[in-house]
Amino acid sequence: MILKLGGMEALLQTVNTTSDNMVMMNGLWAISNLCKGRLPLEFYEIVTLTLAKIIQRETDLSTLGYAVSALFYLLSEGSKIQKLIGIGIIPLLVSCLK
After folding, report:
1. Model confidence over 10-46: pLDDT tens digits?
2. Is the Cβ–Cβ distance between 37 and 70 less than 8 Å?
3. Nearest CA-CA partner of 47 in 5, 94, 15, 79
4. How many angstroms from the chain centroid is the CA of residue 76?
5. Class of the 7-96 domain?
6. What are the pLDDT digits (tens) for 44-93?
7. What are phi and psi of 24, to 5 degrees?
8. Do residues 41 and 86 touch, judged by C-beta distance below 8 A?
């Protein structure tokens, strides 16, 4: 229901525009929880790209943890891994390990 009413789009917009670290963490927590379920395929690319941008620019470890958790839930659906690889998220994750 939340996804049908535009909840994901609102959360993505919020985490993309906020400078408040607490709002960012709470938004990423909510996105992560939405990614635990059966996220419709149309959300994968926009969610992944948003999370990639956050991972690239964030230095706060808690915020990074929430972003990576959301990606983990997206990757946990085996049939979606190829889509995420195609988006180009793997090199970004590898660069975070350095």
Report:
1. 989 999 899 898 999 999 998 988 888 777 777 877 8
2. no
3. 15
4. 13
5. mainly alpha
6. 778 888 888 888 888 888 888 888 888 888 777 666 677 777 777 778 77
7. -60, -50
8. no
